[in-house]
């Protein structure tokens, strides 16, 4: 019998009876592990026998998290890291070499873009950005040097949705590893591996943790890929190992993931409709709206439409700043997926790594505002947002 998603999120990979009846997995605060015999150390380092060696490679608390997220994403194995960027860099350092090429979607999280645009070329890895909402554009861009295809869906910050199955089909005919950043959705809303992706990555700081109190990342895929990322990318390259305490906190977050995501999605859908109807708003970007260009696709490959909204005000950047400064319930802060509703300005904050010309080329404006819908009462959030928009109108009339 295969347990349901919520049951796996609470129980998979851990039995309290194996740990003196402790309901929650113990936090193993240790950096190293003793060997029964001298030969045991050699056998574990060579991979002949299983077991823990050193905290950078593995930890019992971390192992529970890895097994649990692999089960939720439908992967053979998973690796937990100290951050989402730690997960991405460990994957890249493990899979790519000088002369290889990455094809990446045209809109990505700011630090992901900076890594690809500004850093990887220094090490002989070329990067080309492609509009992956059009699968034929990816097919046309593939070359013999392409070793990785990377996308987010929905994209950060402007909520573009790509067809995972169509892109996976293109990648399957080449030597390229297809990587999907599933941070915006979590495995509860979207399962990229089931749609043909090779690897899923997460900033587990966000929805998986859910409480804004940790940093973590995840890599999920085949055992062969995850083993390589663990022993090369994590152990020998970036060393971005997660702490046992942070792994424990992500496990805590997973227990309420289904409940939280349902609430995020329900409230976000209502707010997206409210914002779209507001006269001060020029455009709302939310996959659940009929006006979203990939609305039908999102309905096919996502369980629900998520908790992230982007919007542009008719007054542009100045109106957006006035709107954000007027909010009282909503918190001005970066990150996403927390219990608190957060608002931020991508061009000057999370995506400041893009130049103005790059922002225009990659598909989002300086006036875009990003909203991470939290768990507060819908009415309170609606009233706060509408009051903020009313302040924009008064600001513009005064100007």
Q: Main attributes?
A:
single chain, 399 residues, alpha/beta, Aspartate Aminotransferase, domain 2, 2 domains, 5-stranded mixed beta sheet, 15 helices, PyrdxlP-dep_Trfase_small, Cys/Met-Metab_PyrdxlP-dep_enz
| CATH homologous superfamily (4th level) name of the largest domain | Type I PLP-dependent aspartate aminotransferase-like (Major domain)
Number of helices: 15
Q: Give the averaged pLDDT, no decimals.
A: 95
CATH class value of the largest domain? Alpha Beta
Q: Strand percentage, roughly?
A: 5-15%
Rg, Cα atoms, Å: 22 Å
Series of H and E elements: HHHEHEHEHEHEHEEHHHEHEHEEHEH
Number of strands: 12
Q: Could you tell me how far the N terminus lies from the C terminus, measured between alpha carbons in angstroms? A: 65 Å
Return residue spans where pLDDT drops below 50 for at least 5 consecutive residues.
none
Helix coverage percent? 40-55%
> What structural category do the secondary elements indicate?
alpha/beta
Would you identify the CATH architecture of the largest domain? Answer: 3-Layer(aba) Sandwich
What fold name goes in the CATH topology slot of the largest domain? Aspartate Aminotransferase, domain 2
Strand order of the largest sheet: 1-7-6-5-4-2-3
As for the number of domains, it is 2
Q: What overall form do the CA principal axes indicate?
A: globular
Described by strand count, sense and barrel closure, the largest sheet is: 7 strands, mixed
Catalytic activity: L-methionine + H2O = methanethiol + 2-oxobutanoate + NH4(+)
Enzyme class: lyase
Keywords: Lyase, Pyridoxal phosphate
Protein name: L-methionine gamma-lyase
């Amino acid at each position: 019998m295969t347990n349901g998603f919520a049951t796996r999120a609470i129980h998979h990979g851990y039995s309290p009876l194996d740990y003196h009846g402790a309901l929650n997995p113990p936090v193993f605060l240790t950096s190293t592990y003793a060997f029964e015999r001298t030969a045991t150390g050699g056998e574990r380092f060579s991979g002949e026998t299983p077991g823990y060696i050193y905290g950078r490679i593995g930890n019992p608390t971390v192992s529970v998290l890895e097994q649990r997220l692999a089960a939720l994403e439908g992967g053979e194995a998973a690796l937990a890291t100290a951050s989402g960027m730690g997960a991405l860099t460990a994957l890249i350092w493990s899979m790519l070499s000088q002369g290889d090429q990455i094809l990446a979607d045209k809109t990505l999280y700011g630090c992901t873009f900076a890594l690809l645009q500004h850093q990887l070329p220094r090490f002989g890895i070329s990067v080309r950005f492609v509009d992956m909402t059009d699968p034929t554009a990816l097919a046309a861009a593939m070359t013999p040097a392409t070793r990785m295809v990377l996308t987010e869906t929905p994209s950060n910050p402007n909520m573009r949705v790509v067809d995972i199955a169509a892109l996976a089909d293109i990648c399957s005919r080449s030597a390229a590893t297809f990587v999907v950043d599933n941070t915006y959705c979590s495995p509860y809303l979207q399962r990229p591996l089931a749609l043909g992706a090779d690897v899923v990555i997460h900033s587990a700081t966000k929805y998986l943790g859910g409480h804004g109190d940790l940093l973590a990342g995840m890599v999920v895929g085949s055992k062969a890929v995850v083993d390589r990322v663990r022993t090369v990318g994590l152990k020998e390259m970036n060393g971005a190992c997660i702490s046992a305490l942070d792994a424990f906190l992500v496990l805590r977050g997973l227990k309420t993931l289904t409940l939280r995501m349902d609430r995020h999605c329900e409230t976000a859908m209502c707010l997206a409709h409210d914002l779209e109807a507001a006269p001060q708003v020029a455009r709302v970007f939310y996959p659940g709206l009929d006006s979203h260009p990939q609305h039908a696709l999102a309905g096919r490959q996502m369980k629900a439409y998520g908790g992230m909204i982007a919007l542009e005000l008719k007054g542009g950047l100045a109106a957006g700043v006035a709107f954000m400064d007027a909010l009282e319930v909503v918190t001005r802060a970066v990150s996403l997926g927390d219990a608190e509703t957060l608002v931020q300005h991508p061009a000057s904050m999370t995506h400041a790594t893009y130049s103005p010309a790059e922002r225009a080329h990659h598909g989002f404006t300086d006036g875009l505002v990003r909203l991470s819908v939290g768990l507060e009462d819908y009415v309170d959030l609606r009233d706060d947002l509408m009051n903020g928009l009313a302040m924009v109108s008064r600001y513009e009339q005064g100007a």
